[in-house]
Amino acid sequence: MRTQVAIIGAGPAGLMLAHLLQRAGVESVVLEIRSRAYVESRVRAGVLEQGTVDLLNDTGLGDRMRREGLVHEGIELGFEGKRHRIDLKALTGHAVTVYAQHELLKDLIEARLRVGGEIIFEATDVSIHGIDGNSPSVTFSKNGVAQELHCDYIAGCDGFHGICRTSIPDGALTAFERVYPFAWLGILADAAPSQGELVYMNHDRGFALFSMRSPTVTRLYLQCDPADDITNWTDERIWDELLLRFRCDNGWKPNMGPITQKSITPMRSLVTEPMQYGKLFLAGDAVHIVPPTGAKGMNLAIADARVLAQGLVDKFQTGSTGLLDRYSEICLRRIWRVQRFSWWMTSMLHRFPDASPFDRRRQMAELEYLAGSEAAARSLAENYVGLPLELL
Ligand code: FAD
Ligand code: DHB
Fold first, then answer.
1. Which of 43, 141, 178, 301 has its CA 20 to 30 A from that of 341?
2. Catalytic residue list contains 200
3. Residues lining ligand 2, CB < 6 A?
4. Which of 40, 298, 306, 387 for mutating ligand 1's site (highest number of atoms within 8 Å of CB)?
5. Which pLDDT band, with edges at 50, 70 and 90, does 45 fall under?
6. What pLDDT shows up at residue 204?
7. Dihedral, 43, 95, 391, 331 alpha carbons, nearest 10
8. Residue 390 banded pLDDT, cuts 50, 70, 90
9. Which of 19, 72, 102, 288 is catalytic?
10. Which residues contact 70 (CB under 8 A, 6 or more apart)?
11. Among 146, 51, 166, 56, CA closest to 106
């Protein structure tokens, strides 16, 4: 089997890359370890930056998102029993859209299959070869039959636990990492969202986040110990803790309902540089991770895919590798700005186990500054809706 670009991983980065390449007439094959049903139902991210929304609309993927996505023109920050609105639209002219990652993946898969593009689901034993030469290839098994895919380039879009990053020889990459002393316990509940906008809450007992997926489904997160086990959290304990952390002077609280999904996600910041080795290009969570506060991971994965697609298309259309050679440099400028923002939101809103009274008061002062200063609020807002691509 032969293609121009072998793409490992059918997440947002891999599928968006395949979509953009296909539109420009570049062939690719996507290899995914999981089943289609698994990929289309795995609960992950939910907030799309304006630039991501624009890209979906501009490339023919926006129909269902425009119908079912929820446009949010503001978010709320809560602390000391009060909530303060940050008016994203007034401060930046832009908004964000709440649309579940797995819904976007369904749209991407459907669009790819409609034009006859290939996605090989349940590909096992995926392994990459020859990345430092001129004839890279990928071996894998499908239904127990070993296969080989020859290609010009390999795109490693296989997420944090994938095989692409670790296939690069030791010493070729440098990792910059921070692991946080907490995790997020996330739930989906069959309950109508009790208000229209997200609430990021800093509480003495730890962070909590109110979000949503649809007019009938609420998404909630609460900070917990990274070593904690989900089986320690009964539904009753989760609701007790959430209601405590969201308690406000005006009596607002999330609506309760049956919990349909719950899981614990550890939090880290990671950047691996450079994002390329020979004929292998890494994109998305395969090469960087942000802590989820601020909702940047999926947007960053899609931003990488856009830059990589441009570089590859340029190479196949003109023969020049000028843009492809600058892939890492172009992406890393955005990635580090987004890392800074995600780290800052995380640091401001979570309870650090070793925090001193000084640290706690500094957090409160920062939140009060945001609530009272238009300049401070605008800085948060412009990062939250997404930095413009032309800046970078
Ligand atoms: P992934 O989505 O991880 O996709 C990688 C794919 O590769 C997977 O389908 C995997 O099965 C496949 N794969 C792995 N190994 C192999 C292999 N060996 N062979 C073949 N295939 C392989 N981001 C936001 O922007 N907004 C949010 O609101 C947000 N909230 C989040 C909330 C939570 C609780 C979590 C956990 C994450 C959140 N994120 C958010 C982050 C976002 O989900 C990720 O950044 C995003 O999924 C990254 O996309 P990706 O394509 O790089 O990787
Ligand atoms: C969601 C996730 C986030 O990380 C965030 O900052 C906001 C919303 C969500 O899953 O809805």
1. 43
2. yes
3. 45-47, 198, 209, 211, 219, 292-295
4. 298
5. confident
6. 95
7. 0
8. low
9. 72
10. 97, 98, 99, 196, 212, 214
11. 56
Active site residue 142: no
Q: What single letter denotes the amino acid at residue 360?
A: R
- DSSP 3-state assignment of 285? helix
Does 9 sit in the ligand 1 pocket, CB within 6 Å? Answer: yes
Predicted local confidence at residue 43, as pLDDT: 87
Q: Can you tell me the distance from the alpha carbon of 135 to that of 362, in angstroms, rounded to the nearest whole number?
A: 55
> Is the pTM higher than 0.85?
yes
What sections of 40-152 are H helices per DSSP? 50-58, 63-68, 88-92, 101-114
**CB–CB of 13/286 below 8 Å?**
yes
Strand partners, 145: 142
Task: Please answer whether residues 56 and 15 qualify as being in contact, where contact means their C-beta atoms are separated by less than 8 angstroms.
Answer: no
Give me the sign of the Cα torsion angle 45, 49, 53, 55. Answer: negative
Q: Which of 246, 251, 285 is nearest to 268 (CA)?
A: 285
Q: How far apart are CA 389 and CA 392, in angstroms?
A: 6
Written as six digits, the tokens of 209 are 């986040």
The Å distance, Cα 285 to ligand 1 centre, comes to 6
Active site annotation includes 315: no
Asked if residue 179 has pLDDT above 50, the reply is yes
